[in-house]
Design brief:
Shape: elongated
Order of helices and strands: HEHHEEEEHEEEEEEEEHH
Radius of gyration: 20 Å
Distance between the termini: 8 Å
Helix content: 40-55%
Number of domains: 2
Length: 196
Amino acid sequence: MHALLKYQQKLNGLFFSTRPVDPPVRTQHALLLLCSLVDKVRLTGVGCYISHVCVSIFLYADDILLIAPSVSALQILFSACEDELRTLDMQLNTKKSICIRFGERYKVACSDLASSSEGVIAWKNNCRYLGVYFVSGPVFNCSFDYAKSKYFRSVNAILSKVGRYASEEVVISLIYAKCLSCTVIQYRSLLDIGAR
């Protein structure tokens, strides 16, 4: 991720687009077929590269993340993904898909991405990908507000129910078990990403 962020500073803009895929029932078979999707994106020759390694596409479960240095390059990558997924008998859900822009020209209006299925993918100011909230801006930026508010909401719920009646040890162990076990792990991972 650090190398990607350093590379982003050299680009005049970095674009993210997340598109959940509607997977067929035969999920394991589909995962093997998605390797052809990565190859198809790599063969387009556009996108982002670090030391001759294509970093234009990331796959996790049913999510696809495309990274491109321009809107036209992102449209080429998106069209290549659509074509390959169509051959795999899968389709993109354009209603759950968004684009987000980073770089000096992040406020400049640009056209939405066109889908071959008559849908469009609009540009947004923020998005959530794998639990991390990205915020559009002149540099790559993550928002930790959601993780912090989730933590404090959980702590306040515990304190409002048992705060006066339970001992400090019980309250602390409840906070640790219910708030820190999940939220702080997420928040810590966000801090690690932000520090890089």
